[in-house]
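=== RUN LOG ===
request id: a7f3
mode: sequence -> structure
chains: 1
length: 228
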Amino acid sequence: MNGQQTIQASQEAGSRKMLIAMVGIGVMCALLIVLTYEGTSERISRLRAQALQEAIFRVVPDISSTRAFQLTAQGEFTEPAVPDPTRPQIFAGYNDAGQLKGFAIEASGQGYADVIRILYGYDPVREEIVGFYVLESKETPGLGDKIEKDVTFLENFNGLDVSLDETDEALRQDVVTVKSGTKSNPWEIDGITGATISSRAIGNIINESAAVILPKIKAEMNLFSDQQ
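=== RESULT ===
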C-alpha cells in the first residue's frame, strides 16, 4: 500500500468513526427526549387539569362543583368518560344547593403568534359573559400578552352581552372588538392599544364559540338544570 492509499484509508476510517459517533449521539439524544417526555407527561397532564379546574371556578362566580360536557360531531352534549381533545368542552357550575349558576366554556382561535386557548364564563339567565381566562397563549410579551393582564381589557368580560335573538338560534349581536376607548355597546370589547391583533382575536374567538355553543345550551337546559 503506497502513501496515498494509506492516507485515503486513514481518512475513511476517521469518517466512519465520526459517523458512528454522530449516530451514537443522535440515538442518545433521542432516548433522553423520550425518557424526559415519559417522565414528565403525567405530571404535565395533571398540572394542566388542575389549572383548568382552577380557571373554571374563576370565570363562573359562586360555584362549588362542576359537571363536564362535550359537544359531539352531531351537535349534542354528552358527559364523556374520556374527553375528545378535538371537541369543545363546557363545564356546568353549581352552588352548594346544587343549583345551576353558569357555564365555563372552552374556546380557541388564531392569535398574532399562535393559537390562543381561552375559557369564558356564561350566565344563561343574564345572557352575559361573566368571566374570562387565558388558558394558553404565546402572544408577544409586553404587548399581546396584555390580553391576560390588562385590567381595563379584562373588565370587558364582567357583563359582555351575548344574548340570543327571538329564535334562540343565533346571537342578537355579534361580539366585536373595537378600537381602545370607543366601546359604546354591551356586546363590544374595548381593544388594547399596541395589541390590536391579539385583542381582536379574543373577540373573534368568543363570537365564533358563542354563536355555536350558546344556542345549543339554550336548547338543552333541562340537561344541565339539576346536579346529578
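=== NOTES ===
The longest helix spans residues 3-59.
The longest strand covers residues 100-110.
=== END ===
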